[in-house]
Amino acid sequence: MRRMPMVLCAMVLVVVAAAAARAEQVEDPRYAAWKDYAIGSSASYETETAAGGQKMLFESTHKLLEKADDHVTVEVTTSYTIDGAKHSVPPQKQNIAAKSEKKNVAEKESEDVKAAGKTYTCKVYEVKETTPTNGKEVTAKVWVSKDVPGGMVKMEASTDQGKVTSTLKSSETK
Fold first, then answer.
1. Which domain does 48 fall in, by range?
2. pLDDT digits over 21-40, tens only?
3. Looking at CB atoms within 10 Å, which of 70, 87, 156, 160 has the fewest?
4. What CATH number is associated with residue 141?
5. Among 149, 143, 140, which Cα is nearest to 110's?
6. How far apart are CA 153 and CA 148, in angstroms?
C-alpha cells in the first residue's frame, strides 16, 4: 500500500518533467502567413536544386483551401523538369496547425527583394536545424512579406549535399 503513493508521485514527476521538457508553443509563422487571406489565395514559386552535380527545376503553387482558428490547409501542386521533360506530382495537402514549438530562428535586418515583377520589403530569417532523419545540418534563409499569401518571397537552403533556391513567381489574393 505504501508503494502506491510513491508510484503515483513518481508518475506525476515524470508527467511534470515531460511537460517542462516540451518546447514553448507559439503561433506557427506559416499559419500566421496564411490566416488573414481568403480561401483560394495562392502563391507560385520557381525552385532550383543543385545536388550531386545535377540541377532540377521545380514549379509549385501553394493555394489556401481551408482556414480555422486552429489550422489552415494549403494545397501544393508541383511539377519538375529533368533533361527537358516536365513531370507533374499529384497535389499534396498540408495541414498547418496554429501553434507549434518555438524554433531557434534569428531575425535579421529587413531587405528589399525583387520577385514576380515587384519589389517586396521583407523580414529576413535565418535558421539552422539538424534533420531528425539523418542528423544532417540544414541552413536556411527566408525572406518574408505580409503582402504575399503564405508570406515567403524567397528561400535559400543548403546542406552538405546541395543547395535549394526558391523565388516567388506570382501571387493571387482572393
1. 24-172
2. 456 889 999 999 999 999 99
3. 160
4. 2.40.128
5. 143
6. 7
